[in-house]
Amino acid sequence: MKILTLLRGLPGSGKSTFALNLVGSDFLVCEADKYFMVDGEYKFDGSKLKEAHESCRTMVETYMKDSLVNDQFYREIAVSNTFTQEWEMQPYYDLAKQYGYMVFTIIVENRHGGENQHGVPSEAIQRMKDRFEIKL
Prior knowledge:
Layout: E1 2-8, H1 15-23, E2 29-30, E3 37-38, E4 41-42, H2 49-69, E5 76-80, H3 90-99, E6 101-107, H4 122-131
């Protein structure tokens, strides 16, 4: 069985840490934030956010295509993004259907008092919190 896990949550909730523990390899964790890593340093540029999310989606699709060549490759993939709106996950649902992955979504809450590692301002976090959509 091939599994795609989408981890949702606000900055600082522990999505990246949880994803890493879930799949056991940073290589198998796809995140838009990785697009902004330059020489080991996080350099966010809001004007490139769309490209960052497209890069993340493309990486997931590449892994899924590789799994068709050898079904031992990329059996578990985690995507760790805020996903505050349901529609933001749709491209991943579509990929999972196309390549035969079962999808799980997990909302990660900051109950451990973690701080976001990327310096997201509290006003931005509040905006994300206000728009966080849950569909049951």
